[in-house]
Amino acid sequence: MAANVCGTMAQTKEDPARIAVDLRDAARFVFHAQLSLPVKPGPLTLVYPKWIPGDHSPIGPIVDLTGLKFTADGKEVPWQRDSVDMFAFHLDVPAGATRLEARLDYLSPTEANGSREHPSATPKLALLNWYVVMLYPQGAKSDDLTYVASLRLPEGWKFGTALPVAKEQGGEIEFEPATLTRLIDSPVITGQYFRDIDLSPGEKIMHTLHMAADGPAALEPSASEVQHLRQLVAEEYALFGARHYRRYDFLLSLTDRMPPDGVEHNESSDNRTPEGFFLDSDIREMHMDLLPH
After folding, report:
1. How does pLDDT run across 152-188, given as a tens digit for each residue?
2. Of 36, 135, 141, 222, whose CA is between 20 and 30 Å from 52?
3. Where in the sequence of the chain do the CATH 2.60.40.3650 domains occur?
4. CATH architecture observed for domain 194-286
5. Residue 251: strand pairing partners
């Protein structure tokens, strides 16, 4: 079946796509998602992200995608996977339908297994990269697509992200509309043991360290370590003399269940270190270049 981008023009800023992610099963390594996409009747090809931030080859974690189901006006819509491009899904939007609903699950690896896609969760924390639960029309430019994202967390868990929050009510966090480009570039960290630290107190542009850990002791950096991080922010500005972001959020996962790693984004960074980063000087010295990087 040939690629078809029919339906992409159905989306406008006034009628954006929506993605609702439910992380209440994250401690069991399952991320649930529901998407609602404006469409027009006719052939439509949706794709799962293949090229993702921080990687240099087309290795989006589609092997961890499961439970894909499409409906329109309450009726199931059959789909067919492309026979060559395993990231593409073909379907026909029925007559009269204006929105297509999609449900899917992402199964996070439970431990490092040698693949590029590392675990995204532990029993106490989770890191949501939106690309793991995303579908979008084939051929569309990510800057031209607008998504309204929302999120549900396990009870008592807190979160941090560079995405501006529009509202929180009924256990649901809704973010301000964002282009697909910005959404993919704005991961969310969340956890039962969580702490925020202001790294630029008194400044107009906020710099925040969001920490999630497998235990509470890991969230207690010394006063001198906090000052080191604040000095990092100050010296960055002294060196470059400008800032290219609205705010900056360091997302730091403190866990021994995820391999150490780091991915930079425009307004945030996804950083992962051993749980003892602030507790053991040897561990800290080994990973001290991660946040500056």
Report:
1. 999 999 999 999 999 999 999 999 999 999 999 999 9
2. 36
3. 16-190
4. 2-Layer Sandwich (3.30)
5. 210, 270
CB-count burial class (<10 Å; 0-12, 13-18, 19+) for 34: middle
Task: Report CA torsion sign: 195, 215, 261, 258.
Answer: negative
Question: CATH classification of 16-190, choosing from 3.30.70.580, 2.60.40.3650, 3.40.1790.10, 2.60.120.560?
Answer: 2.60.40.3650
Residue type, 86: M
Cβ atoms of residues 101 and 146 within 8 Å: no
Q: What is the pTM of this model?
A: 0.94
Residue 3 has pLDDT above 50, yes or no: no
- For CATH 3.30.2010, list the domain ranges present in the chain: 194-286
Query: Residue 198 corresponds to which tokens in the numbers above?
Result: 């202001």
